Structure to design on (699 residues):
């Protein structure tokens, strides 16, 4: 019996299309087809935003036929949700996918507001799915879990599908979008006259960058191996849905919010001319102070905000945002080998720059280990043909362990084998990294803020401080390599009052 | 003086040096429908496509002489068949394909079905050596190799999916409980199954 080969796209002209910037999602106006339930007003009158999941054609590159994808509101990536601290948001999600769809992924969908502090019921439990034709509302309170401590306020989040067994296929199909968070300090206004405003680059100079690697068939359709258990790695590099786009920039500071939305690919970002940039925020929010770096390693699910100051380069300068990690599969990169330009910056104009990067961005109290009530070992490994956490596979009816709300725990995240890395992700609350391989000094400065994705390389361990706040219920934790996650490297914690 | 360009940029020599030309490549087509191969089952001759039809299928790769993981997997499938109840045969088929094509006889297959009291809707099947390898290739598994000790090294994975939906998944046999496997198969197969039906007891 003959198994067909399929010709896939292997080379396209780079830098022929401009970088698209996902539109910010405006609060919905008008009369609701269905009113909000009373619970949605728990934090006052919410902003309502609507995400409609539907098929749409997307063009990755002008040399490749359009691709039929699953989108939020017709675009890939989806529109950017903007939250402001103190103003709750209700996300109304409508599933209008084709009920007769065949292929990888599944039209029974879930949404996870990744990095947000929301009740487990609004967090995206993998079997809380809705069918085509159904809708569901999610309450995002946009409050601080600890009053007056704005270090708990995130900066760059994202939303994506999280359905049991099929998260990889559904995210690959296109169900992902960005979230930007602001407050009175990080106010989305570089001209903010308030003396406490940070005045970071804003507006057109605050740019989300969603990185994802793809394989495309020559007819434009998505190539996806449903039986890839290591996390598929693609040969085409996309930023905000375009293959290797270019971005004309002004000679001034920009804030870029980097998100790795790949299945299993890691990135080691750097600029082609070796210039430094400043890292100002990690998954959980602004860092205490900017960290100047020349290389930034990122794994699936992780976010970092960086500042690049193009005023140091003459007009006409071209700089590529590069990655050079070589992957044969999604388990781990095999080292630095191949220059892979992701995005080309062209410094093409002057522009005023009222923005600043303050030396002090945030106040983050040192990790307080004095209140630790439990120390746990959380081990990621491959056993019995699958991916396990603490020698157990995901089971929606049995938690990994129980914990108590409003307590602090110390977790040792361990990957014994050197054969694979695991980007650990915790839902609802986030963690601080205390040490890597037993050494506090081994935690780099940019990892000392709050994190919800932590890469644990093969043969290493990371000790983290987990603080549960007031929510009770099911907290999910899993490997954010989506191939690993779907092969049951996921568990949950039963958090009790 | 720099002249602003509003179209795609002419690449500078520094950038051009970074570009590595891609090479043309064919890839194995990812699984969409299970490869259609002849089967000799304990109920008679058929093919995978005919056997599956519009049903979901749970696929086990085994051999009757296996004294390792097959016994546990077969026990799991036996329990899963009970959880599936009336769905087995109607909505879901279980297909156990022997990889021991050179030694397995029809008698072995029938005997295995009898010993394990295989219910209707579960098929124990033998295939030719080349068809076994075609199936393994589609599942991205290595070819059959009979060891000197008479054992065949094989996967611990259980595959499930539908030809009609072109949707396939796999799960480590030790990851699955009968309830969970039955649920995940129905979840993957039935696109109108409401979330409320995804209960611990199916």
């Amino acid at each position: 019996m003959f198994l067909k080969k399929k010709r896939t796209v292997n080379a396209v002209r780079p830098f022929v299309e401009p970088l698209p910037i996902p539109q910010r999602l405006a609060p919905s106006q008008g009369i609701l087809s269905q009113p909000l339930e009373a619970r949605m007003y728990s934090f006052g009158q919410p902003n309502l935003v609507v995400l409609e999941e539907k098929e749409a054609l997307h063009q990755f590159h002008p040399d490749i036929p359009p691709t039929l994808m699953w989108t939020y509101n017709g675009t890939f990536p989806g529109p950017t949700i903007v939250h402001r601290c103190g103003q709750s948001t209700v996300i109304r999600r409508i599933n209008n996918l084709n009920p007769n769809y065949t292929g990888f992924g599944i039209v029974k969908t879930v949404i996870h507001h990744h990095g947000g502090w929301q009740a487990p019921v609004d967090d995206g439990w993998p079997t809380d799915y809705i069918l085509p034709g159904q809708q569901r509302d999610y309450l995002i309170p946009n409050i601080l879990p600890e009053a007056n401590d704005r270090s708990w306020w995130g900066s760059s989040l994202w939303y994506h599908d999280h359905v049991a067994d099929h998260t990889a296929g559904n995210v690959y199909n296109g169900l992902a979008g960005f979230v930007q968070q602001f407050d009175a300090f990080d106010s989305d206004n570089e001209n903010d006259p308030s003396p406490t405003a940070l005045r970071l680059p804003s507006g057109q100079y605050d740019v989300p960058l969603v990185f994802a690697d793809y394989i495309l068939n020559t007819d434009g359709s998505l190539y996806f191996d449903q039986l890839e258990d290591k996390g598929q790695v693609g040969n085409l590099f996309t930023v905000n849905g375009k293959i290797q786009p270019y971005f004309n920039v002004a000679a001034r500071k920009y804030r870029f919010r980097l998100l790795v939305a790949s299945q299993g690919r890691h990135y080691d970002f750097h600029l082609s001319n070796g210039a430094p940039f400043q890292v100002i925020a990690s998954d959980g929010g602004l860092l205490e102070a900017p960290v100047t770096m020349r290389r930034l390693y990122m794994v699936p699910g992780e976010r970092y905000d960086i500042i690049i100051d193009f005023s140091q380069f003459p007009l006409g300068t071209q700089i590529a945002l590069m990655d050079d990690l070589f992957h044969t599969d999604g388990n781990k990169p095999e080292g630095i080998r191949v220059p892979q330009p992701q995005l080309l910056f062209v410094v093409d104009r002057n522009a005023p720059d009222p923005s600043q990067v303050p030396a002090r961005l945030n106040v983050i109290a040192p990790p307080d280990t004095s209140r630790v009530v439990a120390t746990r070992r959380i081990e990621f490994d491959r056993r019995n043909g699958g991916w396990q956490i603490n020698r157990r596979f995901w089971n929606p009816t049995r938690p990994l362990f129980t914990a108590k709300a409003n307590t602090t725990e110390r977790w040792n995240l361990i990957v014994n084998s050197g054969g694979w890395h695991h980007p650990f992700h915790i839902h609802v609350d986030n963690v601080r990294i205390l040490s890597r391989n037993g050494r506090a000094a081994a935690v780099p400065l940019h990892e000392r803020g709050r994190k919800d994705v932590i890469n644990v390389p093969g043969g290493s361990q990371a000790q983290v401080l987990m603080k549960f706040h007031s929510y009770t219920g099911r907290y999910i934790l899993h490997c954010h390599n989506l191939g690993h996650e779907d092969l049951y490297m996921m568990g949950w914690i039963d958090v009790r009052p | 003086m720099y002249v602003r360009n509003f179209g795609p940029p002419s690449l500078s020599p520094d950038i051009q040096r970074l570009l590595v030309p891609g090479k043309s490549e064919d890839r194995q087509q990812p699984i969409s429908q299970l490869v259609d191969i002849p089967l000799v089952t304990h109920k008679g001759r058929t093919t995978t496509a005919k056997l599956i039809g519009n049903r979901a299928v749970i696929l086990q790769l085994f051999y009757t002489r296996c004294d390792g993981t097959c016994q546990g997997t077969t026990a799991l499938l036996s329990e899963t068949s009970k959880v599936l109840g009336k769905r087995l045969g109607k909505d879901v088929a279980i297909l156990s394909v022997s990889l021991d094509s050179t030694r397995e006889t029809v008698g072995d297959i029938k005997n295995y079905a009898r010993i394990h009291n295989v219910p209707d809707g579960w098929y124990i099947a033998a295939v030719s050596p080349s068809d076994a390898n075609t199936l393994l290739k589609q599942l991205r598994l290595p070819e059959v190799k009979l060891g000197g000790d008479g054992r065949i090294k094989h996967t611990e994975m259980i595959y499930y999916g539908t030809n009609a939906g072109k949707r396939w998944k796999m799960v480590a046999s030790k990851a699955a409980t009968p309830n969970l496997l039955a649920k995940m198969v129905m979840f993957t197969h039935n696109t109108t199954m409401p979330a409320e039906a995804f209960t611990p007891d199916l």
Remarks:
- Helices of chain A lie at 167-172, 482-486.
- The radius of gyration of chain A is 21 Å.
